[in-house]
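Friendly challenge for the regulars: who can give me the structure tokens for this chain first? No prize, just bragging rights.
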Amino acid sequence: MFGGGGLTNEKAYALGKFARVVLGTSQIDYNGRFCMSSAAAAGTKAFGLDRGLPFPLEDIPRTGCVILVGSNPAETMPPSLRYFTELRENGGTLIVVDPRRTRTAEQADLHLAPRPGTDLALALGMLHLVVAEGRVDEEYVEERTSGWEDARAAAMAHWPEYVERITGVSVPELREAVRLFCAPRAAMVLTARGPEQQAKGTDTVGAWINLCLATGRAGRPLSGYGCLTGQGNGQGGREHGQKADQLPGYRKLTDPAARRHVAGVWGVDPDSLPGPGRSAYELLDALGTDIRSLLVMGSNPVVSAPRAAHVEERLRSLDFLAVCDVVLSETAALADVVLPVTQWAEETGTTTNLEGRVLLRRRAITPPEGVRSDLEVLHELARPSSAWRRGSRPGPRRSSTSCAGRARAGPRTTRGSTTGGWRRRTGCSGPVRRRRMRPLKRPTGIRALPGSSSTASPPTTAGPGSSPSRTAPAPRNRTTSTRCC
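First reply, four minutes later:
Bragging rights claimed.
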């Protein structure tokens, strides 16, 4: 099974349930693995929770400085650009990190143009200057973090002149960026696909998070780290169970308590649920070997997957390929069976935006005769299975109710976010227990960058050495902890 970040919450939930309950397979993942999984991993290590933004977009115009890394909202998220424009109108500063002179970079107060793939060295170089210039919030670091010495050692191996040789960003520009970021009381770092879709994407995002933690930004009003989601339901798509290693609500498949809870909602034996499967690329790479058939829903891996030509070759080696899509995509053209499904305007469902708000998207037009929704397709395919019991009726309302039922007491809850509930409200959107990343009063775990070492010599490429880092103890409440990645 291969899903997509554009599927609604209900579809993502049903797809994961179909794979594990009806097919009994662990081989399911989705294209979001290529999108912001690096940021999700870094955020989980640092804060204990994968959350796009821990603050609303309305906070951006009210902060003092924003470092925007690898994002071009002027072209990819035009409605959000107004917040950055208002930031500058209010006297704030916008720093854009992008190898290209994009439309967004043209509006920045400072544009840093590192060589492609050197974002990690740039972030470490800025953290080096924060330490060298005495800009570390020592009280914050001492009281609310741990493992700072390892993170500091990784940064101190990247002195400004060395970083300039790696990235092409001049030392004066580095110093100016640090000055602008540290001068106001509140500041943010926002990352997107640029730093994430790299070989060391998790380390890179972790370095930018470390910059926020070292300066005491995380968990304070109008400050902190955030990730701008990529796909239409990039946040909700990975919360509802279509990832290889997770059940709905960020529950780990390796956690016995999580398995019991979800199995209880689904009405199956916990032991019948398969364990973690292959992640997206490994799954696609294994096609034609022990994986002989595949159902693709809401994705076009022939175009979007890494090594697309190789992925196309693996798809051709399958015994059977089925694709659900609105159009005859490049992947659908290879399929043995193509199931035409409704598009976004022809169906009702919910999505979760980058702020963690659940949005109700109502059907605007009637689909052509004979065209079914993805939920109806999954329902009909699962009908012969006796295990497909709870939530067996197709449709977004029934599926969203089941989603809400499984979410109670989970790391990420959507309790109450049923389509019926949203219809009864005056608006179509609303926060569902949105959490700010606030530090605990007691010291909590912090991680140094993986591979960092205080004795390692400067590497020849962007990134710290390869010796293992110290792993910090897990905090009691992972949803509000602050740890360096």
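DSSP finds 20 helices and 15 strands in the chain. Confidence is low (pLDDT under 50) at residues 426-483. Your move, everyone else.
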